[in-house]
Design goal:
single chain; alpha/beta; Rossmann fold; two-stranded antiparallel ribbon; 20 helices; 40% helix; binds adenosine-5'-triphosphate; DNA damage; hydrolase; hydrolase activity
């Protein structure tokens, strides 16, 4: 949160990790700290810990160069370690150059101007071509219509914009795969984004829209993206053939409008007429389903949510709507007939609800939940739900497939805490409690006197949305859910589920 004046926690954390982690792991942790945890003096953190961060560098160089006698000087080791750090920063769209106080490796390994472009052009064309050949013939009629129209817009430089509307399982992600493989097999660039990190993971080379387009967190109706003519990000966009934005109905229309305005500005480099074209003449494909989650407006009314939706944007008039109507999940080759019938019934039922077929004009309805979807009430509701969703948890919690195939959703944090507490109590093993920092050190390293009106006990008991709790309890083997986008390329993003493999004092 950036409230800590000193970095003792980070130094202690690196020391603890160094007892069990390799230099490679330590560098990843260092990058995560610096990029996401607002270390106040990065230079000092680096200078005091560079030896720990580079403990495998000499070994790595020896095997890379096949020179077992190689001996690196401290300066050479530092330099190589900085290069490795720079690689990791690049993976998350950052660079040492952006971090005040950090030295920059003195080498030509990184051509910053071309880094983003090089990454998008690094796909293996022949494997992309094989993937395309394999999947293209499988496209159904709706997918094929969409594919043809999108490709025609790209190939004729028509700059059309589309909205591919399809419920869950109608083959949107599959279509993105086929189009991306086709373009990448020809050495062309397609920028795949999704509104949430977890959906972006399903797209090849996917990123969140906010990160790829540098969309500001605080948006207003005139916002633009943080992309400027002449920057390497602008260069990437100017060279792209297509943008695919999945889960578009979840995005605030101001975010989409910010991209629209920005593209007009940066695409005029090729042709000044692009300033007057929607999305600067780029072919853009949005996908999603308005029955699913709409933009989240804090304490917003129904009208506020509708107003924030893509359909209310001036951009909507530019979009050609194409529909995917077949449930392709029913084509799963390994499913039994009963399973397929169950999926078909469930998807029909959920679509009926999504379409509001049983709703009155005031959008109120009584929904009959089929009995097989209900949890039978035997005693305490929390115990009943956990028993139903996580049968024999005490033996099964070590099985990743078991954990990955189930989840309990709850609308409020209070209920999440109760469920967590109960589930944790059912898992064997020692419980470890981690606390957040709750005092400020003065310059002598002593604790500052707390404010009498706000005793620490009171502050520590507060549970505020968007603010981590003071206390978290964990056990070895428990599943946890990540609530930040840390390293998209490695799959670490908001909503990624992880398993606790090690419990330290400072790190887990
Ligand atoms: N043309 C196709 N031929 C064979 N299988 C397909 C085809 N299109 C999609 N599928 C398969 O159907 C399933 C659902 O498709 P997909 O994930 O693309 O749907 P989706 O619309 O993106 O769903 P969601 O909105 O839930 O993410 C996947 O397993 C996918 O591989």
């Amino acid at each position: 949160m950036g409230f800590l004046a000193k970095d003792d926690e980070w130094h202690d954390c690196l020391k603890e990790v160094s007892q069990w982690a390799s230099g490679t792991k330590m560098r990843r942790i260092f990058v995560t700290m610096v990029a996401y945890s607002q270390v106040s003096n990065v230079k000092e953190l680096w200078e005091k810990n560079w030896e720990l961060l580079s403990d495998d560098i000499q070994h790595y160089q020896r095997s890379l160069l096949n020179r077992p006698e190689l001996h690196l000087s401290p300066d050479e080791t530092k330099e190589l370690c900085l290069i490795e750090l720079e690689k990791l920063f690049h993976k998350i769209g950052k660079s040492l150059v952006d971090i005040p106080g950090m030295p920059i490796p003195n080498c030509n390994t990184f051509d910053r101007a071309n880094r983003l472009l090089a990454e998008e052009l690094s796909y293996n064309r022949s494997s992309m071509s094989t993937e395309f050949e394999k999947n293209f013939p499988k496209l159904n009629h709706d997918q094929r219509v969409a594919y043809d129209q999108i490709m025609e817009s790209i190939n004729t430089n028509n700059g059309k914009c589309f909205f591919i509307e399809g419920f869950g399982g109608s083959g949107k992600t599959f279509l993105w795969k086929v189009i991306s493989a086709k373009l990448r097999s020809e050495g062309r660039i397609v920028l795949c984004v999704a509104t949430s990190g977890i959906a972006a993971l399903l797209m090849d080379g996917g990123r969140t829209a906010h990160s790829r387009f540098r969309i500001p967190i605080k948006l207003n109706p005139t916002s633009t993206c943080d992309i400027y003519q002449g920057s390497d990000v602008a260069d990437l966009h100017q060279n792209a053939s297509l943008i695919i934005w999945d889960e578009a109905p979840m995005a605030h229309r101001n975010a989409i409008e910010a991209l629209e305005r920005t593209l007009r500005d940066i695409m005029r480099k090729h042709n000044k007429n692009n300033l007057t074209k929607p999305f600067g003449g780029m072919t853009v494909v949005f996908g999603g389903d308005f029955r699913q989650t709409l933009p989240i407006i804090k304490k917003g009314s129904r009208a506020d949510i509708v107003d924030a939706s893509l359909k209310m944007s001036y951009v909507w008039q530019y979009l050609e709507i194409l529909k995917l109507t077949e449930n392709l999940r029913l084509r799963q080759p390994n499913s039994s007939e009963t399973e397929l019938n169950d999926i078909a019934d469930f998807s029909k039922w959920i679509l009926q609800i999504g379409d509001g077929e049983d709703c009155s004009v005031f959008c109120e309805a009584n929904i009959d939940i089929p009995s097989e979807l209900m949890v039978e009430r035997q005693g305490e509701p929390i115990i009943d739900i956990v028993r139903e969703i996580y049968p024999h948890l005490e033996c099964n919690y070590v099985n990743p497939e078991y954990l990955a195939s189930r989840a309990i959703l709850a609308p409020h944090h209070e209920m999440v805490h109760k469920l967590n507490e109960y589930v944790l109590s059912q898992i064997p093993g020692e419980e470890i409690t981690y606390l957040s920092s709750d005092y400020v050190q003065n310059e002598n390293g002593k604790q500052n006197i707390e404010h009498p009106e706000f005793p620490a006990e009171l502050l520590n008991s507060l549970q505020i949305p968007g603010f981590p709790d003071h206390e978290i309890k964990l056990k070895l083997g428990v599943p946890v859910i990540l609530l930040r986008n840390i390293d998209q390329a490695s799959g670490l993003c908001n909503r990624t589920r992880l398993i606790i493999k090690k419990n330290g004092q400072m790190v887990h």
